[in-house]
Amino acid sequence: MESEKKLSNKIDGSELQPGDHIYSWRKLKTYAHHGIFVGEDKVIHFTSSKADSGYSSTATVSKNVSKKKPCTKCGYDGKAGVIETCLDCFLKGGELYRYGYNISRRRLMFTRFGTCTSVSCGPVEDTLRRAYDYLKNGYITDYSFLEKNCEDFAVNCKTGLTVPTGADTNTLSGQPCFLRLMEKPYLLAAYPIVRIHEDSKLRKICPKH
Fold first, then answer.
1. What is the rounded CA–CA span in Å between residue 99 and residue 97?
2. CATH topology of domain 2-205
3. Neighbours of 15 (CB within 10 A)
4. Helices assigned H by DSSP within the chain
5. Burial track 53-74 (b if 16+ CB lie within 10 A, e otherwise)
6. What is the pTM of this model?
7. Quick one: 166 exposed, middle or buried, by C-beta within 10 A (0-12, 13-18, 19+)?
8. Tell me: the pLDDT tens digits for 101-160?
9. 153-166 pLDDT per residue, tens
10. Are 173 and 117 in contact (CB under 8 A)?
11. Is 197 marked active-site?
12. What is the rounded radius of gyration, in angstroms, for the C-alpha atoms of the chain?
Protein backbone atom coordinates (compact mmCIF):
# COMPACT_ATOMS: atom_id res chain seq x y z
CA MET A 1 0.00 0.00 0.00
CA GLU A 2 1.34 3.41 -0.99
CA SER A 3 0.55 4.97 2.39
CA GLU A 4 2.65 2.34 4.17
CA LYS A 5 5.91 2.96 2.33
CA LYS A 6 6.80 5.73 4.77
CA LEU A 7 6.96 5.60 8.55
CA SER A 8 5.83 9.21 8.76
CA ASN A 9 2.97 11.03 7.03
CA LYS A 10 5.09 14.17 6.80
CA ILE A 11 5.51 15.44 3.24
CA ASP A 12 7.04 18.32 1.33
CA GLY A 13 4.85 20.84 -0.44
CA SER A 14 6.20 19.67 -3.78
CA GLU A 15 4.58 16.26 -3.18
CA LEU A 16 1.06 17.64 -2.90
CA GLN A 17 -1.59 16.52 -5.37
CA PRO A 18 -5.13 17.93 -5.79
CA GLY A 19 -7.51 15.93 -3.63
CA ASP A 20 -4.96 15.14 -0.91
CA HIS A 21 -6.28 15.08 2.66
CA ILE A 22 -3.68 17.05 4.58
CA TYR A 23 -3.21 18.09 8.19
CA SER A 24 -0.90 20.13 10.39
CA TRP A 25 -0.33 19.78 14.12
CA ARG A 26 -1.30 22.57 16.53
CA LYS A 27 -0.54 23.31 20.18
CA LEU A 28 2.40 20.96 20.80
CA LYS A 29 0.67 18.21 18.78
CA THR A 30 -2.34 18.05 21.08
CA TYR A 31 -4.55 18.16 17.98
CA ALA A 32 -4.28 18.73 14.22
CA HIS A 33 -6.13 20.83 11.69
CA HIS A 34 -7.32 18.99 8.55
CA GLY A 35 -8.32 20.00 5.03
CA ILE A 36 -8.40 19.10 1.35
CA PHE A 37 -5.70 20.43 -0.97
CA VAL A 38 -7.39 21.50 -4.20
CA GLY A 39 -4.38 22.69 -6.19
CA GLU A 40 -2.85 26.07 -6.99
CA ASP A 41 -1.72 26.53 -3.37
CA LYS A 42 -5.32 26.40 -2.09
CA VAL A 43 -6.90 24.32 0.69
CA ILE A 44 -10.59 23.87 1.52
CA HIS A 45 -11.14 23.23 5.21
CA PHE A 46 -13.77 23.40 7.96
CA THR A 47 -13.09 25.57 10.97
CA SER A 48 -14.75 27.46 13.81
CA SER A 49 -13.81 30.62 15.61
CA LYS A 50 -12.09 28.48 18.30
CA ALA A 51 -11.29 25.13 16.72
CA ASP A 52 -8.21 26.22 14.82
CA SER A 53 -6.68 28.06 17.75
CA GLY A 54 -7.24 25.62 20.60
CA TYR A 55 -9.20 22.58 21.75
CA SER A 56 -12.85 23.24 22.53
CA SER A 57 -15.49 20.53 22.71
CA THR A 58 -18.27 23.09 22.32
CA ALA A 59 -16.85 25.24 19.54
CA THR A 60 -19.47 26.44 17.07
CA VAL A 61 -19.21 28.23 13.77
CA SER A 62 -19.39 32.00 13.68
CA LYS A 63 -19.29 32.66 9.96
CA ASN A 64 -19.69 36.42 10.15
CA VAL A 65 -17.15 37.09 12.89
CA SER A 66 -13.84 38.37 11.57
CA LYS A 67 -11.06 39.96 13.61
CA LYS A 68 -8.04 39.00 11.53
CA LYS A 69 -6.25 41.21 9.04
CA PRO A 70 -6.85 39.73 5.56
CA CYS A 71 -4.07 37.55 4.16
CA THR A 72 -2.25 39.29 1.31
CA LYS A 73 -2.10 36.02 -0.65
CA CYS A 74 -5.64 34.66 -0.38
CA GLY A 75 -7.68 37.30 1.42
CA TYR A 76 -8.57 35.05 4.37
CA ASP A 77 -9.73 37.26 7.22
CA GLY A 78 -10.53 34.79 9.98
CA LYS A 79 -14.10 33.87 9.08
CA ALA A 80 -15.22 30.36 9.96
CA GLY A 81 -17.20 27.58 8.33
CA VAL A 82 -16.08 25.84 5.13
CA ILE A 83 -13.41 28.11 3.72
CA GLU A 84 -10.78 28.19 0.98
CA THR A 85 -7.40 29.65 1.90
CA CYS A 86 -3.80 29.51 0.77
CA LEU A 87 -1.62 26.70 2.10
CA ASP A 88 0.26 29.10 4.38
CA CYS A 89 -2.94 30.18 6.15
CA PHE A 90 -3.89 26.53 6.59
CA LEU A 91 -0.50 25.53 8.03
CA LYS A 92 -0.12 28.60 10.28
CA GLY A 93 3.60 27.95 10.44
CA GLY A 94 3.22 24.23 11.11
CA GLU A 95 4.55 21.25 9.16
CA LEU A 96 2.64 19.49 6.40
CA TYR A 97 1.32 15.91 6.67
CA ARG A 98 -0.78 13.71 4.39
CA TYR A 99 -3.56 11.63 5.99
CA GLY A 100 -3.34 7.90 5.26
CA TYR A 101 -6.13 5.76 3.77
CA ASN A 102 -6.47 2.00 3.28
CA ILE A 103 -4.06 1.35 6.14
CA SER A 104 -3.67 -2.26 7.23
CA ARG A 105 -4.65 -3.26 10.76
CA ARG A 106 -1.06 -4.28 11.42
CA ARG A 107 0.08 -0.71 10.97
CA LEU A 108 -3.10 1.02 12.16
CA MET A 109 -2.81 -0.34 15.70
CA PHE A 110 0.42 1.59 16.22
CA THR A 111 -0.68 4.90 14.71
CA ARG A 112 -2.17 7.88 16.44
CA PHE A 113 -5.85 8.70 16.11
CA GLY A 114 -6.44 11.45 13.58
CA THR A 115 -3.59 10.51 11.22
CA CYS A 116 -4.98 7.64 9.12
CA THR A 117 -7.80 5.12 8.69
CA SER A 118 -8.38 1.65 7.30
CA VAL A 119 -11.09 3.00 5.00
CA SER A 120 -10.37 3.31 1.28
CA CYS A 121 -10.89 6.68 -0.38
CA GLY A 122 -12.72 7.35 -3.62
CA PRO A 123 -11.63 9.01 -6.89
CA VAL A 124 -9.98 12.43 -6.75
CA GLU A 125 -12.84 13.85 -8.81
CA ASP A 126 -15.35 12.90 -6.11
CA THR A 127 -13.15 14.40 -3.38
CA LEU A 128 -12.89 17.73 -5.16
CA ARG A 129 -16.59 17.75 -6.08
CA ARG A 130 -17.62 17.30 -2.45
CA ALA A 131 -15.13 19.89 -1.19
CA TYR A 132 -16.28 22.55 -3.64
CA ASP A 133 -19.93 21.69 -3.01
CA TYR A 134 -19.44 22.24 0.73
CA LEU A 135 -17.54 25.46 0.04
CA LYS A 136 -20.49 26.74 -1.98
CA ASN A 137 -23.39 25.40 0.08
CA GLY A 138 -21.94 24.83 3.55
CA TYR A 139 -21.24 21.58 5.39
CA ILE A 140 -23.98 19.16 6.47
CA THR A 141 -23.94 20.50 10.04
CA ASP A 142 -22.37 23.11 12.31
CA TYR A 143 -18.88 22.58 13.64
CA SER A 144 -18.49 20.41 16.74
CA PHE A 145 -15.11 19.12 17.89
CA LEU A 146 -16.65 15.93 19.26
CA GLU A 147 -19.03 15.11 16.41
CA LYS A 148 -18.32 17.09 13.23
CA ASN A 149 -14.85 18.60 13.03
CA CYS A 150 -12.23 19.37 10.39
CA GLU A 151 -11.02 15.75 10.25
CA ASP A 152 -14.57 14.46 9.75
CA PHE A 153 -15.06 17.03 6.98
CA ALA A 154 -11.92 15.94 5.14
CA VAL A 155 -12.71 12.21 5.55
CA ASN A 156 -16.20 12.88 4.22
CA CYS A 157 -14.76 14.63 1.17
CA LYS A 158 -12.44 11.68 0.53
CA THR A 159 -14.87 8.81 1.21
CA GLY A 160 -18.45 10.04 1.30
CA LEU A 161 -18.73 8.78 4.88
CA THR A 162 -19.86 10.92 7.77
CA VAL A 163 -19.68 10.44 11.52
CA PRO A 164 -23.11 9.62 13.00
CA THR A 165 -24.38 11.85 15.78
CA GLY A 166 -26.48 11.20 18.85
CA ALA A 167 -25.87 9.69 22.26
CA ASP A 168 -27.02 6.25 21.12
CA THR A 169 -24.09 5.88 18.73
CA ASN A 170 -21.35 6.30 21.38
CA THR A 171 -19.03 7.19 18.51
CA LEU A 172 -16.35 9.86 18.28
CA SER A 173 -14.03 10.74 15.42
CA GLY A 174 -10.28 10.24 15.55
CA GLN A 175 -8.95 13.21 17.51
CA PRO A 176 -11.67 13.26 20.21
CA CYS A 177 -11.11 9.51 20.66
CA PHE A 178 -7.44 10.15 21.36
CA LEU A 179 -8.15 12.92 23.88
CA ARG A 180 -10.75 10.81 25.65
CA LEU A 181 -8.27 7.94 25.80
CA MET A 182 -5.71 10.22 27.45
CA GLU A 183 -8.27 10.83 30.19
CA LYS A 184 -8.25 7.09 30.96
CA PRO A 185 -4.59 6.03 31.36
CA TYR A 186 -5.58 2.50 32.33
CA LEU A 187 -6.67 1.94 28.72
CA LEU A 188 -3.26 2.81 27.26
CA ALA A 189 -2.03 -0.77 27.60
CA ALA A 190 -4.83 -1.80 25.27
CA TYR A 191 -4.20 1.05 22.81
CA PRO A 192 -3.65 -1.17 19.72
CA ILE A 193 -6.96 -2.95 20.29
CA VAL A 194 -8.82 0.28 21.03
CA ARG A 195 -7.33 1.92 17.92
CA ILE A 196 -8.55 -0.83 15.60
CA HIS A 197 -11.91 -1.18 17.32
CA GLU A 198 -12.75 2.52 17.18
CA ASP A 199 -11.69 2.90 13.54
CA SER A 200 -13.71 -0.15 12.52
CA LYS A 201 -16.78 0.86 14.52
CA LEU A 202 -16.71 4.40 13.23
CA ARG A 203 -16.52 3.52 9.57
CA LYS A 204 -18.90 0.55 9.57
CA ILE A 205 -21.83 2.51 10.99
CA CYS A 206 -21.26 5.70 9.03
CA PRO A 207 -23.95 6.19 6.38
CA LYS A 208 -22.95 7.21 2.88
CA HIS A 209 -23.38 10.89 2.15
1. 7
2. endopeptidase fold (from Nostoc punctiforme) (3.90.1720)
3. 10
4. 87-91, 105-108, 124-137, 150-159, 174-182, 191-205
5. eeeeeebebbeeeeeeeeeeeb
6. 0.82
7. exposed
8. 999 999 999 998 889 999 999 999 999 999 999 999 998 888 888 778 899 899 999 998
9. 999 999 988 766 65
10. no
11. no
12. 16
Q: Which of 33, 74, 116, 157 does the annotation list as catalytic?
A: 33
Q: Which of 21, 34, 45, 89 is catalytic?
A: 45
Task: State the chain's maximal CA–CA distance in angstroms.
Answer: 48
The catalytic position among 74, 89, 121, 150 is 150
Pick the closest to residue 157 from 130, 123, 132 (CA basis). 130
- Catalytic status, residue 157: no
User: Domain residue spans in the chain?
Assistant: 2-205
Looking from the CA of 138 toward its CB, the CA atoms found within 13 Å total 10
